[in-house]
Amino acid sequence: MEQHGRWSNRLTFILAAVGSAVGLGNAWRFPGLMATHGGGAFLFAYLIGMAIMGIPLLMMEISIGRKVHGGALRGLASLNPKAKPVAWAATANAFMIVTYYAIVFAWVLMMAGNSFRFADMTGDAEAASRLFFELIETTGDTTGWDTWPVMVLIFAILAWALIYFCIRDGANSVGKVVKYTVFGPIILMIVMAVKGLTMPNAGASLAKLFIPDWTALGDSSLWVDAFGQVFFSLSVVMAIMFAYGSYLDDKTNIAVDSVVVVLSDLFCSILSSVVMYTTMGGVGMLDNMSTSGVATAFKIYPQAIVMLTGSGVFNAIFGFIFYLCLVTLAVDSAFSIIEGVSVSLSTYFGWKQKKVTIIVTTICAAISLIYINGAGLAVLDIVDHYLNQINMILIGVLECVAVAWMFDSKKVLVEVNKNTTKFKMPKWWFVTSLKFVTPILLGLLFVFNMYELIASGGVYGEADGYSTWANLVFGWGFSILVLGSGIIAGLVLRSRDKKVVIPAWDELDNMTQEEKDAPTVVER
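RE: above sequence
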């Protein structure tokens, strides 16, 4: 068996975890949610959700990954073999998510490459708002399958090549990349924030961003969006943090490092909000902000770019910096999802990780072609809604059940606090969150989202021209495949699965690091 990789140092792990957590949602969805839900009031609710739900979940996944030296499948199986279907669902959901996230990454690359076009659009907000949609040649609905824009295909190939390049050697190559892809966007956002703060109405924009409208706290949708954003923002329940935890040395201080990751994620969300608010406010478009990431990044913000100054060259340069920032945010999240899937499979079945990474990347790249044609934008929106708003939340509930009800979460807490002295995660906080608070909150969020979907006739986006058949195939169909992936895998890989013996959690204390690094495969 090949030796499982290790992070070169503590900083590399933190950077990788931050890079995975800080993604496009921080840059474009978080500011839109703050604009929709009373500025500081949303931030207040978000902080509550981060404390009671986000931190315990993050610590839990990282510590399980380190303990078993493996991904989600090996980790949850070590707690209780009956939890394997939950791990399969998390792994399969991540697999399907990266197929379209990579195309969003390709779109961002495409816009960065076409930023020079903003130079000829000074003051023409309408032309700027059309640029992205003309480049991807979208119909805006679930028609147009016969349109295949070559430019999008080229950038999609480039996106997948970059993703594979970043993870080709596991922890080793990821560690080298994150030094640039984490600090890079922060530097670029600071540059854009400085520019925004020099624009007209910067003070009023910041006031609207941070001064709370406390009446907004009475709106249930604020809490739904705040807790949902916490859940999506930290890359939990996607097999990623299990994988990154598996690369950790046994002496790592998980309790402290997890808090560092959470605070870094929060800092980047606030910094990106400052950029968005001051820029949009400076050109008189603050009321145009949207909770839709695609609308914000590809339709609304381009309008602001061409209205920044009377210099087309400057506007084009600023536009390039903005999309380059999104590129560096997107690539970390994209390759971390693939890494989570490949580590989950390789450490469970004993397959060579590099070979698994090549196979997973190739299959995902092939599936991603469905999002490139004229109907691709609509199909992507459908798949994203079902996998994120339904599957991921349900898997989060099941993961908490697997750890806190099918196992003893206090044993996981021991692993969290293993090497810490100054700050220890309290038992009342960790256990109560995983056993009661998080599954209840996520359960309510799941019910809320299901109610909205069923109330619309079980068809998401019907008013936008999303057909029923597209919902059935790409929405319900993909969702059912993910949730049933454990059954499917059990049938397809039955003979291999029978040969895999995963040590129980308590048995791991008596094993050497070399024994932990590779799953025990025996002939029966």
